[in-house]
Amino acid sequence: EFERSDPLMTGTSELSVSQEEVVGLGKGIQDRTQGFRRYLPLAVGSCVGLLVLATPLVFLLLPAVMWPDRLQACGAACEGLFLSISFKLLILLVAIWALFLRPGRASLPRVCVYRAFLTTLTLLLTMSYWLFYGVRILDAQDEDYHGIVQFAVSLVDSQLFVHYLAVVLLELRQLQPCYSVCVIRSTDGETRHYNIGQLSIQRAALSILEYYYRDFPLHNPALLSASKHRAAKHLAGLKVYNVDGAQPGNGNQSRAMVTAAAKRKDSAHNELYYEEADYERRVRKRRARLVVAVEEAFTHVRRMKKEDERAAPSDIMDVREAALAIFPSMARALQKYLRTTRRQHCHSMESIQKHLAFCLVNNMSPKAFLEAYLAPGPTLQYGPERWMADQWTLVSEASVTNGVKEGSEFLLRCLDFSLAVTVKSIPYIRLTEEYIDPKSHKFILLLQSETSV
């Protein structure tokens, strides 16, 4: 944030810039920094992958280029090793592409510890093989080409084992659920519970945000402002009087006003009850009108569709045109319903018409069309301008690279609200077995002639 300058600093300069220019400059630098941080891991992974794939090939080519006359002939076993190393490098290339060269889903505040460890281990392994190759093969100009090929094959095998370790640390380790996290939205108290595995705090925060966009209903500040207005209205009816400073003649009047304020406070719950009942009544009324309008519009479309089957090809109406034709008949009812439920800002006219055309193309029912508007959906069902994907801040007392544990707490904060996360360990479950003898289910039925049995 940029605050106003200190009152003691009164000097001026010809090179001064406005606050808007400074904010714009800072935003541009931040955008470039975010782009750099986004593509830096991909660039580093690409360089390390090229080094890993090129090193075995260089090991095979250098002797053939530097001292070809002194090399021993490569027999059938050596040629078989060529085939082995070719397929292993192809498999390693596909594995590296599948695991490391994926587009990043998010920009984390700290470097992933396991990725840094695997990158360092790969570089140490490659440099160790290069050191051994330079001392024992290049300097001595080894003539045993079969042994050189075996040395390159051992390098590829070691790289495959490192990739297996990467799969275990980055993908398999976090699959088993170990912790249960409780996520609470600060404004409306919307709560969800999820199970996660062994993750760092920043990785757990990333998983929780992915769950949030999928499971939490869209955050609607209009509903919160309505509740705040209602609370302010009730508080405005309460007045505080200075009883000690009141005039003797006005004592009875002051006591009467205090009694009236107390009675108003006692009746606040009645006002809230009737206000909510009236709101629910208006919502049901708007909803009924909307359902009827949409059903009539879809019935009209089906009638037009049957008429188009008998009409000439030049007179057939396009789906987009049909959506534009029937939209005005339901637009007013839909607009009133969205205003009543305070969700008119979530749906634009273009998105409604696009959804209507989609339902008409796929021959959906009116209920399928209305489902997107009768209840708030998850955040991903709306436009990207409501995702706030690049506006999250992770607040944690512990280091974000530490693993989550029992009692861990952190906060995911954005512009309008925050997500409070608490972590609990999944208890160790001890399951025992109790054997039931099949003979214990058998019984004897004694028949008596005196009874009906």
UniProtKB/TrEMBL annotation:
InterPro entries: VANGL. It is found in: Cell membrane. It is a multi-pass membrane protein. One of its GO terms (cellular component) is plasma membrane. Keywords: Cell membrane, Membrane, Transmembrane, Transmembrane helix. The chain crosses the membrane at residues 39-61, 81-100, 112-133, 145-170. It comes from the Eukaryota. Belongs to the Vang family. This is VANGL planar cell polarity protein 1.
